[in-house]
Every structure is written in structure tokens, then in C-alpha cells.
Amino acid sequence: MRTPRAARHSGAGDAENFSGTFAALGRIAYEGARVSASAVDINSGRTLLAIDDRIVLPTASIGKILLLIEVSARLTSRDFSGYGILDKTARDAVGDSGIWQHLQAPSLPVADLAALVGGTSDNLATNVLLRQVGLAAVRARTESLGLARTALLDLVRDSRGPDDAPQLSVGSTAELSWLFAALARNEIVDPLTSQRVMGWLSLNSDLSMVASAFGLDPLSHRGTDHGTLLVNKTGTDVGVRAEAGALRGTSRAVSYAVSVQFNDDGLPARLRVLEAMRTVGLDLLEYVH
User: Which residues share a beta bridge with 247?
Assistant: First the structure.
């Protein structure tokens, strides 16, 4: 993971061609955005794409994957039960993404909360799970995985003060693409832990970025659709768009991560970023098929 790697940009006739990705990300970088991208063949481990993949950028909700790994590992080791009931409290309250804040249920099982995080990036469920397992445990688990540039820094807050972490999470795309490849190969902690995390993430309903190119149903894509299978996690904040995932097609499988930090001063700027990320998705789709 720490060996220097050059970006690949193969021409016609080679196994991969990410010319569209380089052009699209280059355009928004020229406009002032900070971009980072990585793609790895899951089966061979070969680096397919590396664009500033070792720089650390804000990744918003993508860091919640690290929480899900810790929760899954504890379920595997029977430190607590997936049926254990957790209550939401006033100090857990937070807005934005998620549906639990709109439900009447005051309590839910641990496994259901993890499913909410995987499916809707539920902020309230995230905070309740973090209160249960502790941010220090998530950090320790992250370090044990060998991740040096990726971290969940804080709980979810409606606003961040001077004493709070400036971002919910940060990460490098090299580490995030490695993480998804390892999850897909059942190598994170143990097979059961990896499979459980991938199951939660397979519920993700946000296909607005890279995954917008895959033609999948945002609300139902846990199975293969036209030979395409996706598991992903996104992160969204003001001036931040990030996505990491694993994509399997009819001939190959790839893990990927893309992060963009930009001046979100208007809808046109945001749409240019989303269109660039969609272009990455088109190149990935072509590779796996």
C-alpha cells in the first residue's frame, strides 16, 4: 500500500483505458478542485488508476465504513448481540441524512442501526452506534487494518465549532480502494465480518456520483443486474463529493475510490464535479465488462 505507484493511462488495445477519467478529473482540477482517484483490479491486485491517490482529502460519510467494520467485528466475536436494543437520546440528535430521525421508534437493534447506516448513511444511527462502541475503538480498529491516511474523526454534528474535528472523516483513495478490495475478498478481520459489512453497504441508495453510470436501481441493487454488481459508500458535504466501492461485471471486478474537494459556490460547479465522477464510472463499467 505504501509503495509508490505511477498513474496508468493505457491506450487502445490494452486491458484498460481511463482516458475519459483523466480528462474529466483534469478539467475540474484545472478549475481549482482537489481531486484524487484510485482503481484496483480485485482479483489480481493490479493498480489500474492512480491520480494523487495518496493525498488526504475530506471524505464525509465514507468514514462510517470504519464504524461498520468495528460493529461487525464485535458481532462476530459476540461482544454484543445484533439483537441488542439501543435507544436514541437527545445528545445523539442530528439532522441531514438518514430516516431514523423521522421514525417514531425510540429504540432499534444494533444490526438494524448498521443497516440504516449502510442503506441511507443514517446520521442518528451512526451517533448511537458510536456512543455504544466508542470512537477510540474505531480508531484502534482502523490502525490495526494498516490504514494511516484514512480515519473517522468525530461523531456527526449539525455544525462544527472550533473545538470539533473540522471533518467527519478523511481518507486517501489508495487506502479506500484497497479497503473495498479487501472487503470483497473477505480479508477484513475475517470472512464473516467482511461479508456482514458488505451486506450492509449493499443497501446503499445513493447512486448519484460514480455509480450513476452503472444504470442500477438505487433502491434495489443487491443482486446482479445486467451482469453488474455494485457495493459502494458515498460521502457528501459542502464542497465535498466522495465515493468508494467494489464493482463486478461479466469479465472483471474492480475496487475504486474518488474524492473531490471543490468550491461549491453554485449549482454549475457542483454539476461539473458530478459529471466528472460519472465519467469515472463509465470507464470503470467498460473495464469490468
Answer: 230, 254
What is this structure's pTM?
0.92
What pLDDT, in 10s, does the model give residues 187-222? Answer: 999 999 999 999 999 999 999 999 999 999 999 999
The grid cell for 100 is: 431514523
Could you say which architecture CATH assigns to the domain 19-288? 3-Layer(aba) Sandwich (3.40)
Contact 139/151 with Cβ under 8 angstroms? yes
| In the predicted structure, residue 2 carries a pLDDT above the cut 90 | no
C-alpha angle 90-95-100 in degrees, rounded to nearest 5: 75
Closest CA to 32 of 267, 275, 264, 279: 264
The answer to whether residue 10 scores a pLDDT higher than 60 is no
Q: Is 114 exposed, middle or buried (0-12, 13-18, 19+ CB in 10 A)?
A: buried
User: Looking at residue 16, what is its pLDDT?
Assistant: 59
Domain boundaries, the chain: 19-288
Calpha distance 198→229 (Å, rounded): 12
pLDDT value of position 81: 80
